[in-house]
Amino acid sequence: MQYQSVNQYLRDHIRTVPDWPAPGVQFRDITPLLQDAKVFRVLIDAFVHRYMDPALRPDVVAGLDARGFIIGAVVAYELNVGFVPIRKKGKLPFTTVEETYELEYGSATVELHTDAVKPGQRVLLIDDLIATGGTMMAGRRLLERQGAHVMEGAAIVDLPELGGSAKLRESGLPLYTLVDFAGH
Asked: Signal peptide position in this chain (predicted)?
């Protein structure tokens, strides 16, 4: 068997769906990463091995609605730390803080429970994909408003042509992504 990097192995299991949800869009579908037990384990291990390092170990993992829940919850479990969901507006039952951000067409709002993180906690903020960076930036602002320190943002896929990863890095947020779809 030929040696293949983890990044290429994962990339080979991401399905591209042309013209979805709109003409001209190349949708990067991560569901094949989750369907195969071996591929899913390689994906989770890629994150877990990074964040087991004491210098990068978070106190809590925050996942962005909804695919960030899938990855973030499993990573938190493997690191033996808590998991915090950042949800779309109207989905959390307790007292929340909210952050509205701009999308390509319109805006969206995400929420966090007011007791989800403690001041000073180191938080890993995770999602499936970085496109324009709006969701991750809003999640970061929510966590920081509660006194937490977002030590890094992480995602499976980066779509650098949409400018989100550059915007997040320029804001001072370190990013870790596994697959880059630049120019594809």
From this structure: none
